Amino acid sequence: MTIRIAMWSGPRNISTAMMRSWENRSDCSVVDEPFYAFYLAQTQSPHPMFEQVLASQSTQYEEVATQLSSGNVTTPVQYQKHMTHHMLNNCFDWAIELKHCFLIRNPKEVVASYTNSRGVCTAEEIGIIRQAEIYTLLTQQTGQEIPIIDSNDVLKSPEGMLRKLCDRLSVPFEQNMLHWPAGKRDSDGVWASHWYHSVERSKGFAPYQEKTILLSDWQQEVVEQVMPAYMALYEKRLR
């Protein structure tokens, strides 16, 4: 029976590098942001490659949810990369039997990176408040003690944090998770050509670097809106 793992993140995290890490295991297949087309169809948000994303996936929530919970998987482990802002309702019945984990990142870094990529940034678009809401919902519905990892902790100690995460998810750690071949993947979403340039060049997790981040007034306002939600998750993170 396949172990299905749902990783709940927001944009401009190390979520795609984490997907590479899991896909490089000997026993794992991955799913890249399966609710993206649903989110765009519902919100009509003017994202890059809007039409291509809609054409690449089902826009029907129940259809996607059924595939993720009971669709055929040929590997012992399936890793699902989810963006929390894509989840527009609180219907998570499909996810009760999955194992869950959360990947968080300091909002200052998220806001700076997201703005650099799109030129705009709102609290809703980076999904941090929604991340805290989903953590509460899934904890209540599944009864799991859901592990949370912070991206900077991972970059400082990739092996240490991945070992702790695998232990909490009751799957064996593999050394293969620390490195992977550079390049594109068939499993990447169609949006990879816009968003995944750095990851496509990578062969492992980038070393942690302390950054000086200068934000405008409006960027700082976004950070202040989402910081309480981030801190609530940060205090529960694996250490």
- Number of strand segments: 5
Total separate domains: 1
Q: CATH top level?
A: Alpha Beta
Order of helices and strands: EHEHHHEEHHHEHHHHH
Spatial strand sequence of the major β-sheet: 2-3-1-4-5
Fold-level CATH name = Rossmann fold
Describe the 3D structure.
This protein has 239 residues and is α/β, with parallel strands linked by helices. The chain has a single domain (3-234), classed as Rossmann fold (3-Layer(aba) Sandwich). Helix content is 46%, strand content 12%. The protein has a 5-stranded parallel β-sheet with strand order 2-3-1-4-5, with helices on both faces. Helix 5 (107-118) packs across helix 12 (217-234) and helix 7 (128-142) runs parallel beside helix 12 (217-234). 40% of the residues are buried.
List key phrases describing it:
single chain, 239 residues, alpha/beta, Rossmann fold, five-stranded parallel sheet, 12 helices, 46% helix, globular, transferase, P-loop_NTPase, Class-IV_PLP-Dep_Aminotrnsfr, transaminase activity
What is shown here, in short?
With 239 residues, this protein is an alpha/beta fold. The protein contains 12 helices and 5 strands.
